[in-house]
Amino acid sequence: MFFNVPSWNLGEPVVDAKKKGAKKTVKESQPDAAPRPTNIPKRKEKVEREKSNPAKKSRSVEPVQHKIVELPQTKGKSKEESKLSGARFRFLNQKLYESSSNEALSYFRQHPTDFAHYHVGFREQTKAWPVNPVDLFIDRLNKRLNNEKLLIADLGCGEAKIAETLHKRAVVHSFDLAAVSEFVTVASMTDVPLEDSSVDVVIFCLSLMNTDYTAALAEANRILRANGELWISEVASRFDGKHGLDEFVKSLQTAGFSTFERDTSNAVFISLYAKKHSKAKIDAKRLKPILKPCLYKKR
């Protein structure tokens, strides 16, 4: 059970601005923020489609001007404040698993500080982990970058640690529902502003959370080049055992990917590496959702 606490948004319904006809709020850019990458390939196919059918213009979620959301300080918190922060994190974590990508995007546009509080809670969770999968991805990319040039898309990037670490060695496009870093572009994971077949590696690091995560996989297929790679890391319990993992790999096959490596060496996380094998447009409605939500017990 959650209690209403001042400045919390507990219990507020997620409102999709498109469905409710609400006005979009465009926030002004942070004047002190570092410049965002200007070399994001434009999505030509989308522009041509919209010219031929103007009624579909509102379908896509474009990146918006926004301020960088500052993460609140955690030092010096009392035990009671830490408990409240933990409860807030669990509430927001559940909201993400129960909302579509566009619904979550709409919610965090209305309540950007909630996104910051979510990531503070997430950071606290990672302190108890034996290893953070994003660090494993960074190590793997560093090795590849010794011999290759890569264009990387990090979908659900959080604090954009991959871009922060590798931006001098590679082009990294980082997308999430709100920005807590100057490297982040705000967008729905099901409709990112990148051109078809323009990316070498797409990464989902603990970010296949929303109810329509299969649409995010279809989007990954769209932006990946032929033989481009999809890297996924998720909490092992979400696969519900080996059978669930096998079923998820089959669903990736339906989404146009051939899995070439499974890393089950970690007791907490499972990482999958796959290559795009299909050039055909993937219908997300055909993809069967396999992953279980990772919900925390109410305290």
From TrEMBL:
It comes from the Eukaryota. The keyword Glycoprotein does not apply. InterPro entries: RRP8 (IPR007823), RRP8_N (IPR042036), SAM-dependent_MTases_sf (IPR029063). Residues 15-30 have a biased composition (Basic and acidic residues). It is found in: Nucleus, Nucleolus. Residues 13-66 are annotated as: Disordered. Its main location: nucleus. CDD domains: AdoMet_MTases. Its EC number is 2.1.1.-. Transmembrane segments: none annotated. The keyword S-adenosyl-L-methionine applies. GO terms for cellular component: 90S preribosome; nucleolus. One of its GO terms (molecular function) is rRNA (adenine-N1-)-methyltransferase activity. Keywords: Methyltransferase, Nucleus, rRNA processing, S-adenosyl-L-methionine, Transferase. GO terms for biological process: ribosomal large subunit biogenesis. Belongs to the methyltransferase superfamily. RRP8 family. PANTHER family: RIBOSOMAL RNA-PROCESSING PROTEIN 8. S-adenosyl-L-methionine-dependent methyltransferase that specifically methylates the N(1) position of adenine in helix 25.1 in 25S rRNA. Required both for ribosomal 40S and 60S subunits biogenesis. Required for efficient pre-rRNA cleavage at site A2. This is Ribosomal RNA-processing protein 8.
